[in-house]
Amino acid sequence: MRILSKKKKSDRMGVDLSPIVEKHEITLESLAGKKIAIDAHNVLYQFLASIRQPDGTPLMDFSGNITSHLSGLLYRNERIVENGIKPVYVFDGSPPAFKEKTIEERRKAKEEAKEKWEKALALEEEGAKTYAQATSKLTEEMIAESKELLSAMGIPYVQAPGEGEAQAACMAKKGQVYASASQDYDSLLFGSPLLIRNLSITGKRKLPRKDQYVIVYPEQVFLKELLEKNEINQEQLIALGVLVGTDFNEGVKGIGPKTALKIVKEQKEFEKILEFASEKYKHEFEPYIMDVFEYFLNPPCVDAQPKWSAPDEERIVEILVKRHDFSEERVRNAVEKMVKGMEEKGSQEKISKWF
Q1: Model's pTM, two decimal places?
Q2: Those residues with Cβ within 8 angstroms of residue 312's Cβ, 6 or more apart along the chain or in another chain
Q3: Among candidates 211, 216, 160, 206, which has minimal Cα distance to 187?
Q4: Number of neighbouring beta carbons within 10 Å of residue 146
Q5: Alpha carbon 58 to its chain's center
Q6: Distance (Å, rounded) from C-alpha 354 to C-alpha 349?
């Protein structure tokens, strides 16, 4: 497991709650028939980072267009749907103004990683792929193609007004989906009752820079259990996240998740927590910190009623095979497995009742 607290803020995504979170290992089969809202940008970045050649070059078609994200969407969704799960992807909308600093830091970090990758390639050094993974960029064209492919596969998507994780959490709170899925813990700060992790990376995975493999299983995290176990409420959880550091604000130097938990339980109210951290740790919070707190507590959301449909095999072939040079045999086999999963595992219902 990655220890995010040891990384620079620009190197990580999401808040670090791992030391205080109880994770429960499950199987994909146990989620059959469940509707799950997936943080689309989170997953697409995973695909762009991990689906690469040994030297770090992303997958491309014969024209040089990157296709890592499309490959990930097809084959990972094949497995998800094959197990009877009903995914709905949630795409980011406009980020809040106070996220601009984080976005700029990440842009600079990608530029630095690109320079290191190019240097490593020139020197034929090991580890070039590690630098390459940090260069991943999700373009508007990639997002549009991803939506087009999802529609062709019969998988719905929702355009969030703000953060995708916030919208997914809202859908879970309203009972429109069973859970939200992301690798980040921000979903819990946004109030998702149930977070599913590792949904899109389940299976056999090679350890970075090692000739070793591990089996990755899905995990579920219950918000109620997290709050009760640590004897805090939702507002205190958000305060804890602010102390550790989120996508919207710098964390307090010297405060990790466990120390933050101790502080919020002692100080209780957000204003007192900020005052205590400012005085003891000499930390100057961002002037918009109250807006960050409010954003987590009451994020912008839209009402969503996702609808699933049968995969359009010929449209999928058009997008992936004719436009991007995918193997037609592999694409058609993937579609066949998806349909079979809908028929056999979707709550034991026939495909006509899947939608």
Answers
A1: 0.87
A2: 152, 153, 154
A3: 160
A4: 23
A5: 19
A6: 7
b/e per residue 63-100 (b: at least 16 CB within 10 A) = eebbbbbbbbbbbbbbbbbbbbbbbbbbbbbeebebbe
pLDDT tens track for 16-68: 999 999 999 999 999 999 999 999 999 999 999 888 887 788 899 999 999 99
**Residue 38, beta-bridge partner list:** 89, 181
For residue range 287-335, what is the model confidence (pLDDT) as tens digits? 999 999 999 999 999 999 999 999 999 999 999 999 999 999 999 999 9
| 238-247 pLDDT per residue, tens | 999 999 999 9
Rounded CA-CA distance 159/164 in Å is 8
Banded pLDDT at 214 (limits 50, 70, 90): confident
Three-state SS string over 258-325 comes to HHHHHHHHHHCCHHHHHHHHHHHHCCCCCCCHHHHHHHHHCCCCCCCCCCCCCCCHHHHHHHHHHCCC
User: What is the C-alpha to C-alpha distance for residues 270 and 37, in angstroms, rounded to an integer?
Assistant: 30
Judged on CB neighbours under 10 Å (0-12, 13-18, 19+), 132 is: buried
Which residue is it, tokens 């296709």?
A: 67
Q: Which residues pair with 25 in a beta bridge?
A: 219
Query: CA 183, CA 17: separation in Å to the nearest integer?
Result: 12
Q: Is the dihedral of CA 238, 239, 244, 247 positive or negative?
A: positive
